[in-house]
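anyone else get weird line breaks when pasting these?? whatever heres mine. first is seq + tokens for prot A
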Amino acid sequence: MSFLAPYASNEPARAEVDALPGATVLEFGANWCGICQAAEPVIADALAAHAGGAPLRHLRLEDGRGRPLGRSFGVKLWPTLVVLQDGREVARVVRPRQPADVALALAQLR
């Protein structure tokens, strides 16, 4: 089981995210969030299992009040993973409990 880097406090603009080519997972959460901490190994395991598939960009973004990117995606609960293909949302997972929850979303990528 691997663990992920902390949530980044700097976030890209929505226009930058919309222009990202290929497969991207935006993970919204907070470093102090207990639910995010509990989901971390689940997310890490699912991403590691997907490593043999198409290249995947994973951005862990700190979310909260005053954070426009999370609001633009309608994020209300943490962690929320938004799966994008060429800047367009193809799947979403809110508070995953098992790697299969994330794997189902990643299966939507081409």
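and prot B, same format (seq, then tokens)
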Amino acid sequence: MSRTEPYTLTIRSDARVRKERHRDLKAALDALERVAREFAEGADARPAGGTFIRRMDPVQQVVARIELSGPNRLRGGVDVRGDGSSEAFTGRMRRALVEPQGRESIYDALRGALSA
């Protein structure tokens, strides 16, 4: 990882993985929000399974995962669901859901959790 660009955004969708590097936390979080909103607008998963395996409705399917990693073990991200909804989390192995407070968006809540 480059010292000049210590924040890495890993974008997973379908079987594709791409990475972006950013110089500061604000730029990385802005990119995370932009990418997650793009995936949420285009989310149109159909129910899957049901015959031999458990049926999964679109809200249960993750169509994209955008993860941010940085210095001092900073980890967090957003899961975009098949119905266009999103959930923010911190951590990697032990994920903790980030709950927005009041009228705050999940992106603002994630910014607060990762900036603290």
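btw re prot B: The first strand starts at residue 7 and ends at 13. Helices lie at 25-42, 106-115.
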